[in-house]
Amino acid sequence: MTYPQIDPIALSIGPLHIHWYGLMYLFGFLFVWLLGLYRVNKTDWTRQQLEDLLFYGAVGVIIGGRLGYAIFYDLQTNLENPLNLFKIWQGGMSFHGGLLGVLTAFWWFGRKTGKSFFEISDFIAPMVPIGLMFGRIGNFINGELWGKVSDVPWAMIFPGAGPLPRHPSQLYEAALEGVLLFIILWWFSSKPRPKAAVSGLFLLGYGFFRFIIEFVRIPDAQYGYLAFDWLTMGQILCLPMIVFGILLMVASYRMGAKAK
Length: 260
What we know:
The protein is mainly alpha-helical. Helix content is about 60%, strand content about 5%. It is a multi-pass membrane protein.
């Protein structure tokens, strides 16, 4: 298959260029907001609290995502040209950095509202995968983060990646980290669960899906494989998520059982 030629600029108004990549983040937050409105009606949250949390979360995603990418994946280049940090339309967002930014936003929001950290994270976690899905679609439109050379029928020839067809790993991530993880978390959170269980499942689910997709995704050129000729930076960053997610779920259910 040939990669569809998609202009990364969705709309131009004079000198102002609106990129699809940025629009994907906007769409992600919009859908999370709509899902949040549905969840607000079934909880003790208010619409104002939801919108405040999404604002803090958006700031955390953008700042944490860019700083995380600069630190984890392209430190030398960004040290040489710090203005690159502001060019989010060119891609270069780290999920793990964005996660740290969002967790910081949760802490700040909790201080202002009196809600506990896991009360916040359990509320928002089931909606996050939809935002991740749109982010991966943005990667696909940008023609970045492609996969390894493959002969599967849906392999694509990406511009800038050579003449051979490759795994569309961005779409794999949109499907697994986005759609499938959303279905799992939405179902899991539809019934009462011990505090922190939903958050733990999110960490476990994302970490696991991202870890396995990294096997067909080209590692970042500046790092390559970091160990055993297959372990990537993405996998290294996912391992603590998987471990902590499991521990969090185990502790959650044990504490929930003792509370009964």
